[in-house]
Design a protein that fits this description.
There is one protein chain. The protein has 149 residues and is of the alpha+beta class. It has helices at 2-10, 54-60, 120-131; strands spanning 30-31, 44-50, 67-70, 73-79, 93-95, 99-100, 106-109, 133-134, 146-147. The protein is globular and about 35 Å long. The two termini are 24 Å apart.
Length: 149
């Protein structure tokens, strides 16, 4: 329960504010702007990983879609709902709808085909490896991270 509350406070689980919104101390959110020629039939979310891990992930994933950089975080585009039953470890941020807490994200990597998505399971496994945690699939509606021995 505490982890879910902290996740909401970090910005991954509630309605995003956009540049036109006013009030509140919450940071303004920008939606990652995917190139219009790419198919987003599955909707999209974003997984934010500290930039220090970006090149390592990029070089070890079998296929990579769109990747954005903003405020020392690399945002990987994944199909909508890629957080369901996956316990994304700290310090990963999950942004529903691709709304991220930065004003000007920039595209730093485009896909080799017409899909903007990085497959979420290989990304999840690689993120767990760089975070030093054992991958954990959660019970629906319950989020947890298990530390590696």
């Amino acid at each position: 329960m505490l982890r879910d509350a902290l996740s909401r406070l970090r910005g991954g689980r509630h309605a995003p504010r956009t540049a036109g919104d006013t009030g509140g101390a919450e940071p303004v959110r920008a939606r990652l702007p995917l190139p219009p020629e790419l198919s987003t039939s599955l909707g999209y979310d974003a997984v934010g990983v500290p930039a220090r891990h970006g090149f390592h992930l990029l070089s070890h994933l079998p296929r990579t879609g769109c990747v954005f950089e903003a405020a020392d975080v690399w945002w990987w585009i994944v199909p909508a709902g890629s957080d369901q039953d996956l316990d994304w470890p700290e310090p990963v941020a999950y942004a529903t709808g691709g709304f991220v807490p930065v004003p000007r994200p920039r595209l730093i990597h485009g896909p080799d085909n017409r899909t903007p998505y990085t497959p979420p399971i290989p990304l999840f496994l690689m993120v767990c490896q760089v975070a030093g945690v054992t991958p954990s699939w959660g019970t629906p509606g319950r989020r947890r991270a298990v530390t590696a021995p």
